């Protein structure tokens, strides 16, 4: 089936070349990092995880795109998702690929990466995160590819894939839960030390993943003969609406516990984000933007009439995606390190090479996505 | 029999063969000299036999580091029951006073760069 | 020797990486159970190195003359690089103010003698170390023999999870090659390399020779006391009996083994 990715319009090839060039620039920056060490990043002794790990955390959420179409389709027989499960699964594949790449570029000794397998450590959440992420990647590649292959031949998917599909549903929950556990079990990092972190990750994932999926599906509809169908958009927009409301609700719960209890260590993270701490407030504009965009997006999505208009829905999805990227892909990880263990503030800001590597990883992920979507759409168009 | 696109395929094959055989062709006639690691003059015996050290010094060093760092055991019983401090920097390099004349000889010949020296300090003459 | 290496080669070659990993996971579980039995048997007088720091003695001495002997000795013998940039610096033994060392204890009106005074900080070699719990490769581990929290620099992949886990800021990452920042090399001890995490090792290399940690040995004010917490007659237990002591962030349950006399 992969040969389908070798034929395409001029703009398809232009997109591939652009992504390749960006990935190449990222790789160049990565060579610099390998040579110089992580000092080329903005990270420090106090903020020891930065942009890479933040993107990883956010993209684990985007990978939820798959489960939010697979679950309704296979468990609740929501037929309208039949056409786009493949888009959800392939988006998950690309997202998890980016997640794994972001972990690798964050390592100080990437050549020793396999030590995680050589000395497996069940008491480390990172070990389990490696297991669940690779498992989810594997499940979605196998399921997506097999079902698509069967569709191409006009036959039913083999029976053995069904159990894998059912397994992929709780597995999707596990990637968000385990990723949240990376943070939620650390003594002394009070911003993360909250039992609601895993539910928050699930809520934001179920909003961010499907909202990107909606945007991609609109793009596919515009540029190909494959149409996911209006009902699919309607259903997905419902998912985004509910998940985004729950996400905002969960954030408000965090604010209540922190500020009503008045415990300084629980408040300081939010104070840093929204009004600055000890004269430091680099994240302030971004966190306010995230909050405002979240509210606007919720208001747009709540009304069924509004969200069934293509233009409004597109804008709402863009807002949801940006708001959650700011919240998780920028705010959550960095703020966890502020204030530091000495109750002082060291701020973090990514450097240019760091951004170059980040863009390179995103380009690689979207390269994978483009090729997979190209194959999927070619098969779908063949069968029209 | 006719080969289609022979004007592209044959030069392509030639380039491929050329690329793959380049290292061998390049070195024809000029074999690299065999390494001559310089042995210590004062000491006649190592922690194990010569044959053992030649074949397995890397495994021994691997075992030493686990023994010292992870098992907190800083005694190694070597040849004839003699005891040694299992330490690259403080035992091996005590007799083999030159990394250049000893370690590097074979490592360069074999084209390996063990990362021992990223942390362990080579004797003064190498700095 | 050759047999052994051939066997291990076949083992690695024969099993797929994942299969191998699965076997090893099983071994880990099995090992944990065994260790549990042993720990119960030894619990009575188990060796756990600990330190008691009497800052008043240090300050009194410093009134006569400024002194950084402990830090100089520690960083000197362990080849700790001197990096000026606070974002990149590497610290095994260092000082900070009371309100930074004990952020949850402090209030606006500290006693005059503690105000603005430095507190000596190092790895606490916790009884329940979060850094060990989170490390995905066991590159950092608690030595069952004597409770020292060790780093295996050969194994560290540089993920920095331990730095997120440590609530004491006791861990430093090598953001760059440390060698250019070491003024004088101690030829008896290795340096570190870029990309690994490091911290105080309670002078494991000196303990192996029955020597006290360097900081304890060089302190002219005798402000540092080192000993076995498991032994009721040890000097640290004597001090803990006689004085009111505090530990950093006691409430987190990490069980720090560095005590401060106040």
Structure description:
Chain A is mainly alpha-helical. Chain A has 2 domains: about 1-185 and about 350-384, no CATH class; about 190-200 and about 230-350. In chain A, about 70% of the residues lie in helices and about 0% in strands. Chain A contains 14 helices and no strands. The model of chain A has no long low-confidence stretch (mean pLDDT about 95). Chain B is mainly α and about 130 residues long. Chain B has a domain at about 50-125. In chain B, about 50% of the residues lie in helices and about 5% in strands. Chain B has 5 helices and 2 strands, in the order ααββααα. Chain B has helices at about 5-25, 50-70, 90-95, 105-110, 115-120, and strands at about 75, 85. Chain B has a two-stranded antiparallel sheet. The longest helix of chain B has 21 residues, at about 5-25. Chain C is of the alpha+beta class and about 260 residues long. Chain C is built from 10 helices and 10 strands. Chain C has helices at about 1-15, 15-40, 55-65, 70-75, 100, 130-135, 160-165, 205, 215-220, 235-240; strands at about 50-55, 95, 120, 140, 150, 170-175, 195-200, 225-230, 245, 260. In chain C, the strands form 4 sheets. Chain C has a 4-stranded mixed sheet. Chain C is globular, with a radius of gyration of 20 Å. The relative contact order of chain C is 0.19. Mean pLDDT of chain C is about 85; it is low at about 10-20 and about 30-45. The interface between A and C is large, with 48 and 54 residues.
